[in-house]
Amino acid sequence: MEKAYYARFMTNLGEMYIASSNRGVCKLKLEGEATKDFFDWLGMHFEEIKEDVEKNQEAIGQIVAYARGNLREFDVKLHCIGTPFQKKVWQALCSVPYGQVASYKDIAIKVGTPKGFRAVGMANNRNNIPIIVPCHRIIGHDGGLVGYGGGLDMKVKLLQLEGIGINGGKVATR
């Protein structure tokens, strides 16, 4: 029986919820996302859900440090739950360095489906571990911010935190 352990915590980016299994972090809910959706997702994937701050302390500490601008690279185990294609895309997202961006097309090429930028967009949308799996660094081919599960305001905050300029809804320098 697989269990998930969750915790609620505050950062300067707002209130967040995190969940981990014994394999690693599996879900992160950003400020502005529905708490009900977080628990519904956990209920679909785990037989038991238990509050446990201690099990999530290392990841929480890293997210808090990132939000303060004191961490550039995460070092926590991940338990990515998705299709093989989604996992391939999420792995590619993790290769986009702090302070840099890539387009959906760039990621599609990287995962071997050059015309699959829409499929990459859908996989990006299904990323359950935002920030740690940095889907906020993925933008449109024209530099546009496009969508973000945590809302475009959060995407702008995250990109600006990493030193990326935004002008008129687009990345200013690429």
UniProtKB/TrEMBL annotation:
Q: Which UniProt keywords apply?
A: Cytoplasm, DNA damage, DNA repair, Methyltransferase, Transferase
One GO MF term: methylated-DNA-[protein]-cysteine S-methyltransferase activity
Pfam families xrefs: DNA_binding_1, Methyltransf_1N
- What is any one of the record's Gene Ontology cellular component terms? cytoplasm
Listed under catalytic activity are: a 4-O-methyl-thymidine in DNA + L-cysteinyl-[protein] = a thymidine in DNA + S-methyl-L-cysteinyl-[protein]; a 6-O-methyl-2'-deoxyguanosine in DNA + L-cysteinyl-[protein] = S-methyl-L-cysteinyl-[protein] + a 2'-deoxyguanosine in DNA
Summarizing the function annotation, the protein's role is: Involved in the cellular defense against the biological effects of O6-methylguanine (O6-MeG) and O4-methylthymine (O4-MeT) in DNA. Repairs the methylated nucleobase in DNA by stoichiometrically transferring the methyl group to a cysteine residue in the enzyme. This is a suicide reaction: the enzyme is irreversibly inactivated.
A further note on this protein reads:
This enzyme catalyzes only one turnover and therefore is not strictly catalytic. According to one definition, an enzyme is a biocatalyst that acts repeatedly and over many reaction cycles.
| The protein's name | Methylated-DNA--protein-cysteine methyltransferase
